[in-house]
Amino acid sequence: MTTSRNSDTEKSDNGNNGAAPDWDAVRTAILGEMLELVPFGGWTVDVLRRAAIEAGYDRAAQRQAFPRGVIDVISWYSHVADEVMTGQLAEADLSSLKVREKITLAVRLRIEALSETKDAARRAAGFLSLPTHAPSGAHFVYRTVDAMWRAVGDTSTDFNFYTKRTLLAGVYSTTLMHWFSDRSEESADTWAFLDRRIENVMQIEKTKGKLREQFKHMPDPFSFLADITSGRPRR
């Protein structure tokens, strides 16, 4: 896919007018070219430079669009897939779905957003697994699962906010890894795997609920320890 610059952006690059370039458009154009090249050359600086040239941008524009280089391109790639997923969820009728069904749909839509660039996505995951890039990879996953929860209407602000995202990060990441090696028709094995992972999480939530119910009538162990160490009598 070759995307050329629009005239306004080109003029701005050459300093012929004061219009600011549409940097999102620049990023998307370069990303489009890079996704065509990554299966052959990987996520490298050289491939990024070639992609920028193919998209019609010079080195200065490339650096402005992606200051940190390849990691910023992958960040944009992830962001675009998040936007596709949230856009599709916004158009879907979620009113009759249970929470687990909404989240299952969100994970599936997010993975399907990568279906046309599966090899590039697999290589990106490998790139992000390197120790120097792992923090960025974790940030991208958090951003994705946060977008999923918000898209299905989650409004939690307490401890559940973090536990929901932590659990979903595990579900999403393992399902994505499964999908990378899935050769079944229409990724049927991946969606079955996703259903099992969601079921596991639901069992964990049920267990947590039962434990909270059981322990709420028990004395506070920390209060008990404080009493016996201070010599205060128990009531």
Question: Can you offer a commentary on this structure?
Answer:
- This protein has 235 residues and is an all-alpha fold.
- It has two domains: 1-67, no CATH class; 70-235, Tetracycline Repressor, domain 2 (Orthogonal Bundle).
- Helix content is 72%, strand content 0%.
- The chain contains eleven helices and no strands.
- The protein has helices at 7-13, 23-41, 45-55, 59-65, 70-91, 99-112, 118-128, 134-151, 159-180, 188-215, 221-230.
- Helix 2 packs across helix 3, helix 2 (23-41) crosses helix 5 (70-91) and helix 6 (99-112) packs across helix 8.
Q: What name is given to the CATH topology of the largest domain? A: Tetracycline Repressor, domain 2
From the N-terminal CA to the C-terminal CA, the straight-line distance is 76 Å
Secondary structure category: mainly alpha
Provide the gyration radius in Å.
23 Å
Number of E-type strands: 0
The rough form would be described as: globular
Biggest sheet features: none
